[in-house]
Amino acid sequence: MEDFSILIGGKAGEGIDNSSSLIASILNKLGYYIYVYRDYPSIIRGGHTFSIIRASVNKVNAHSNKIDFLLALNQDALDFHKDKLTDSAITVFDSSKIKSDGIAIDCLKIIKEEKAIELMKNTIIIAAFFKIIGINFEIIENVLKEKELKELELNLLVAKRGYAEVQKMLDLKTISSIQRPIVSGNDAVALGLINAGLDAYLSYPMTPTSNILHFMAQLAEKFGLKVIHPESELAVILMALGFASMGCKAAIGTSGGGFCLMTEGLSFSAIAELPIVIVMGQRPGPATGLPTYTGQSELNFVLNAGHGDFLRFVVAPGDSEEAFYFSSLAMNLAWKYQIPSIILTDKLLSEGYHSFDTKCISEIKEEKVPLSDEKNNYKRYLDTKNGISPLSFPPMKDNVIKINSYEHDESGITIEDAKITKDMQEKRFKKQKYLEDELENYPTIATYGNNKSKTALICFGSNKGVCIEIAKKLDLFVIQIAIFSPFPIKKLKEAVKDLEKIICVENNFNGQMANIIRSYGVIPHFKILKYDGRPFTTEGLEDELKKVMK
Amino acid sequence: MNQLDLKTNTTNTWCPGCGNFSILNAIRDVLITLVNEGTPIENFMLVSGIGCHAKIVDYINVNSFYSLHGRAIPAAEGIKLANPNLKVIVFAGDGDAYGEGMEHLIFAAKRNIDITTIIHNNRVYGLTTGQFTPTSPLGYVGKSTPQGSWERPINPLDLMLSSGATFIARAASHGIDFLKKVLKEAILHKGFSMIDVLQVCVTYYNMYEYYTKRVYELRDHDPSNFDKALNKIREWNYSDDSKIPLGIFFKTSMPSFEEKYINFKKKEMDRTSEIDNVLKSKY
After folding, report:
1. Which positions in chain A touch B11 (Cβ < 8 Å)?
2. What are the residue boundaries of the structural domains of chain A, listed by start?
């Protein structure tokens, strides 16, 4: 099998997430590339939760709607997903809870006989599934041991029982000895920020970026991080600006609602030239919207948030490797240009799990910012050729450092003078040209697929994976916009110059990216928009494309 | 160091007679004293909100962070955590700290972070030309409440006591020697210290005579006793015409946030290989 998908579903609280991670790890041992899509409601127990684990001999960054194996822990898992099953699909289910065709295992009986706990029915079903597809028990045993499960012995016992309940039906082979880390987009962002010298991470919990906070808290000791969970997003950004004023590289994470509260602080970071990195994980709005689902409706918001005219860096990574790379870049540029940097992700990328190509971690390093060598006349906002004022931080002997949210002179003292106001506004914008020039050397726009095709899909963020896969199948060209501010208009115009048909693919209602490129003179012909909180599946995008290409 | 005057060349734009002048003069003298006693001047960081009070950072030639309205305290907390060796002093107004940024005041007290917060409490919005604030008395007639406010004021000291502040005081903008004494003690206190300074606004709420008649300094008060502190704090509710006690109501010693906070040190390391190790745990 070169490419197959497993759906495991049950109630929230039944361990679906850990189960999908277990399945992914076992398939990783066999050398497959892994892509996990997690679908769960915003509740702690009950409701319907499922994960789709896709395994492929090639790198994939999208999930399919065609399910080859269904592992059902309750009736809903069967009823909600039976239309996704392929003709040859195999269903493994807990017969103590479900009536169905397929391979029945009475999990409750095993649990009772082994005096195990009900949560372990996952282990039973997973062990049975891997027997069916022809995996040796040792591999399952090893992964269970590596996962450092609580009650390992009991888990191994019930796994053996599940394994014994079924017959081998397929003969899945190890395809490669190469194993890859399986990371979430959140993990990749966290490591990318650390790679660029992160000192402090602050966040108020909010899906889909809460896991960055949790991961950072785990890594705090190893990397010497200050990880803080303050009282609100207002406190988060202001504390981070306090850190920045002292020369500490700070990053913060949130979603749309939290970012709304941060916008005054964002604007402050701009006038006070305090570097900050904001991870903005999108989920459907407006307001509380669909907290645990995905969307891309904050593109306009991050580009326009905050009052006043100011320069910002905005990047939208398309997969975990880019999440790592661009998070490092966002930090480096924030400090080099003393501007706010925004990393725009979405729930699909942030919380999905993907095989990670570790090559990217040596491709970018922390850029150390040179400090001012001024002895006794330091000016925090000294005007220079490129508008970048040399940095220094308190305590600085014989000098005074003044940070100011008001318009200010070079020393940071409040002013209302017309000429200084004009000069300082121009000083801050002088940096734009230098930033744009530097970005010429970075993949602000990426292209994939058939560059001779007259039809291109244009996408951003997590739609990269699904667009590349379908473009390959239909022999189309793909343009991914990675950096939105400053907008790489030259590179985009170059990429579209021979095209006859431009199709924008986005997860929002209005086609925000399409409208942005139109404002720069690149005219999209079609928009494929999905705004139901669910990401495009490969089949879903293919069907929509066929409609517009007719 | 005796030559130190800590003045900037900025023109002072407070109204003549404004209570802010005495807070400015008091803090400048206290800073000079502390420098003479051994704290390097560059180790001070002044943080302000937005309002008439906040101009103070433009007038003192010391490191400063002129924050947003209501947001002086979280910035100060970030600064303190970034460098616990700094002496961080926050200036905030009553609209600023008791209105817009109340949550931060409560949380800073809850954490007992070692910063000093001085509230310029003139009980009116000055810079926006005269509206009622969280500490204006019931019935205050201002531009947004021409029929008189319908809200009773909060007692910020009471709030601070229940939030966990370890140093709570009240002073007034007239009586500069007393003000200096309280400010110095607050700055030297290890933990979250808060001083509510009753400040006269000559233009919008001139309470000079009102305060002069009612204020008195606490005598024979035991600031380590929570119940007695509460009792004294509740003697005046910011609305009734009772006597107004000034002084240190409560003072206790507790570990401060930055002492308790696990301060992991950044080590020299090959980050790429350490990150690679973290990734290896993710098979």
Report:
1. none
2. 3-165, 183-362, 372-442, 445-549
